[in-house]
Amino acid sequence: MSYSDVLSIFSGALTTLLLSVAGIALGLPIGLGMALLRWGRLPAVGPFIAVYVSLLRASPLVTLLLLLFYGLPDMGIEIGPIAAGVLALTMNTSAFYCEIWRSALLAFPREQLEAARAVGMRRGMCLRRIVLPQIARTSLPALVNEMSQLIKVTPVLAIVGVVDITRAAVRVGADTYDPLPPFCVALAIYVPIIFALVSVQRWVERRKARLETSE
Amino acid sequence: MTKLSKAVASRRRALAAALLSLVAWATFGCAHAASLEEIKKRGYIVVATEDDYRPFEFVKDGKPTGFDNEMVDALQKYAPFQIRHEILPFTGILAGVATGKYDIAITGATMTKDRLQSLDFASPIADATDYYVKRKNDDSIKSIKDLSGKPVGVQAGSAQLAHLSQLQAQIEKSGGKIGKIVQYTSYPEAYQDLALGRTDYVVNTIINLTTLVNQKPDVFALGQPVAAPSMAAWSVQKGNADLLTYINQFIAKQKANGTVAELQKKWFGQSFNLPVAFTPEY
Q: Do A177 and B96 lie within an 8 Å CB cutoff?
């Protein structure tokens, strides 16, 4: 395996990071939005989201991706491999984020909301100042868990032509007929990425704890 | 009906409706690939190639190379339209051509009867007769009958997998039976498992195996043919006749000016005389 082979696996790492960051950055707020809409018990929207979430949680990512990639052009929407990958990741992960956020919302003590209303807080302000900071903290471990899952399922996107870490390693192996060295390099790249994510989680948790004790 | 059970029932109905519309889409939606006229009008053709099928198509130093990719370069010089080149694993290629996502698969796909139902094949570009490869130090395999009972590796969804029935018939004629068939997403993994001893032989086309044995002469050794002669060719969506004729004219011209023979020698180690049309027996 040559130096340029290692380099090509690293450029695969850029794609993996790009896809993961896009999936997380889009999925996290969409999941939160869907959870809030369900929590708010809106008559028409709530059931619709419930169906959407159950459908997406039931469909494997590869199947969803193939459906989007080969199906959307059928309806006149051209879509490239990266865009299809981001769309499939976002749809899939936002359904799981929605359930994580919703479980935190369901466990949220109603008394706090009543107290906020009693002192004349509006709904939006109550959400920003009281609900969100607390559910963000309780959901954090589950959210980070889902994020690390997302990073590790990105290799399935290779089926439509996305070249992530694993696919780049497969390509090197197909050229040299010696697949073990590229796979070792690939694994050595995944580990620090996940480690960095978990470090951020720990840092956020420690910072929150410190802020609370100083209050 | 209580309020809760009503809500559950309406949710079930919505779920059923969503699933039904998916099935309807699958049944009635039928895309078609661009015809030659449409390709000329919009100014580009969408070409799909593989990324791990040495020596036909593979990626070296981040650039696509191999026999078919050099043919793509030649096509770009020949054609009045641009080439949009998509590189993806084999699993997605033929499905993509059959659904019209790609106009043509420029990959060494073996022609089979099954594939002819959804694809039309151009003039063959290579001999694709199946051989087996074994570990060099494995002295227990000397001829076809020695393969009896031994585990074999092939690529999932490949023509070689479909052709194994011919090998089975040969082995059974000599009183043995075919061993466990292990399927892989692509051949590099199958070769690796053969080297590790998880399987005892791998079936692939003569060209792929010759390249493998030339690259790793200490590990692998080539065996005998295991199926009737077959050919590898590019494919378009079934019924896309104009594009097929255009591509066949291109191939005929490259054969006449010596490009095909030169590239075959460079990538396959030998050039061969191939028919203009080929009808697969299996």
A: no
- The predicted pLDDT at position B4 comes to 62
Residue of B nearest to A64 (CA): B22
How far apart are the CA of A93 and the nearest CA of chain B, in angstroms?
19
Residue whose entry in the numeric block shows the structure tokens 């031994």: B150
Looking at the complex, report in whole angstroms how far the Cα of residue A125 sits from the nearest Cα belonging to chain B: 31
Q: How far apart are CA A20 and CA A153, in angstroms?
A: 9
Spatial distance between the Cα atoms of B58 and A156, rounded to a whole number of angstroms: 19
> Nearest-CA neighbor of B179 among B157, B148, B208, B135?
B148
A4:B62 CB<8 A = yes
Q: Do B100 and A73 touch (CB under 8 A)?
A: yes
Query: What is the ipTM for the molecules in this complex?
Result: 0.72
Structural contact between residues A164 and A154, judged by C-beta atoms closer than 8 angstroms: yes
Cα atoms found within 13 Å of the Cα of residue B270, Cβ hemisphere only? 10
- If you ran DSSP here, which 8-state letter would residue B272 be given? -
Cβ neighbour number for residue A44 with a 10 Å cutoff: 6
> For A78, which residue in chain B has the nearest alpha carbon?
B101
pLDDT tens digits, B227-251? 999 999 999 999 999 999 999 999 9
Secondary structure of residue A172 in the 3-state scheme = helix
Alpha-carbon distance of B71 to B41, in angstroms, equals 23
- Choose the closest CB to A70 out of B11, B14, B96: B96
Q: Is B62 left (phi over 0), alpha (psi -120 to 50) or beta?
A: left
Place of tokens 């910072």: A207
Token reading at A140: 């954090």
**pTM of the predicted model as reported, rounded to 2 decimal places:** 0.80
